[in-house]
């Protein structure tokens, strides 16, 4: 299994996952031409087997229908989100539910409910032939259930949205600061560090920090915080940062054996 975070921020989010000729996209918040160009460069084809929607916020759905039409692929989302976005006769809309696995080619995608200020917000577990990954880009808090789902995956894509000091001392109005920090907002660098401390295991090879705030975070601060649990000895997983308008490297999870 290989994956690439095509971009992640409050202006747009999308992650491409591919294995054995199967390619899926999680969210479609980035420009259509940019997204298709990256899909082709990574997979060699202007094709997708499916788009999965984590939630209805515009930075995850801005170009959903245009992309689905261009690539003639189905869209998987919950019924409430589908209703909110509006059903289209020219789009193949399919339902997902918490804990219901969906098989697309060699990939199995299992949504799980997360805490965020959206209608029906999901994270995803993606299982391939011999490796697996967990992805959640917007979440205000985590619990034992989420830790159990993410623990010891080969790859992790997790939110590290803000630095607490930068947010508290920044220029955002009080109500917005409160929204970001409450249990349905976003994870801070410190909360992300604590989550990684719970879920990184001997199989875990790759970690990508996503949805960094351009106003209330700094990539160096996010890296420094997560490095406290990822480690610097070379024995832990590789740590990557996602950027708003630039894809990560193509991350290969290999055969799923992880580190001994």
pLDDT average, as an integer? 94
Count of beta strands: 14
Write out the CATH superfamily name. Answer: Ribonuclease Z/Hydroxyacylglutathione hydrolase-like
The main sheet comes to: 7 strands, mixed
Helix and strand string, N-terminal first?
A: EEEHEHHEHEEEEEHEHHHEHEE
Radius of gyration: 17 Å
Report the total helices: 9
CATH architecture: 4-Layer Sandwich
Structural class: alpha/beta
Using the coordinates shown, work out and report the CATH topology. Metallo-beta-lactamase, Chain A
Runs with pLDDT <50, length 5+? 256-260
Name the overall outline.
globular
Structure write-up:
- By secondary structure, this protein is an alpha/beta fold.
- It has a single domain (2-252), classed as Ribonuclease Z/Hydroxyacylglutathione hydrolase-like (Metallo-beta-lactamase, Chain A, 4-Layer Sandwich).
- Helices cover 28% and strands 26% of the residues.
- The protein has helices at residues 32-43, 58-61, 64-71, 79-85, 144-150, 164-168, 174-181, 189-199, 219-230; strands at 2-9, 12-19, 22-26, 50-52, 75-77, 93-95, 102-104, 107-113, 122-127, 132-136, 155-159, 206-210, 238-241, 251-252.
- The strands form two sheets. The protein has a seven-stranded mixed beta sheet with strand order 6-5-4-3-2-1-14. Strands 7-8-9-10-11-12-13 form a seven-stranded mixed beta sheet, with helices on one face.
- A hairpin with a 2-residue loop joins strand 2 and strand 3.
